[in-house]
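Researcher: Re-running this chain for the archive, since the previous output was lost when a drive failed. Same request as before.
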Amino acid sequence: AERVKVAMQGTREERSVLVRDPNRLVSSAVLSSPKLTESEVEAIARMGNVSDEVLRIIGTTRAWLKNYNIVAALTRNAKTPVGVGLHLLPRLVERDLKLLSTDRNVAEPIRVAARRLCAQGDARRK
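Model: Regenerated structure tokens:
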């Protein structure tokens, strides 16, 4: 209970530690903190050691998905759930799609879908 309270009202450093907490209540309390900034959310989306539940929450929050850097960080993260990553792919620019289509750290379905979207973009330009 105390960790949830600190997650909601703590400092930036405390939130960055608590977002990695194995307890889902604590890590999702960090995301509902009113002090959380978009730059912190972007940093969390880049982290490889957060739970997939945290990444799913970020990927389904419309306010955060308006920031392109957060969308790009989520799609590049290996721990992002495949369904969330596939949903975000059409929002990426072509350069990021090409990088993603060759990135070995992301899930195979995301890599294949990025390759397909690149091919569609190439076909449209011709």
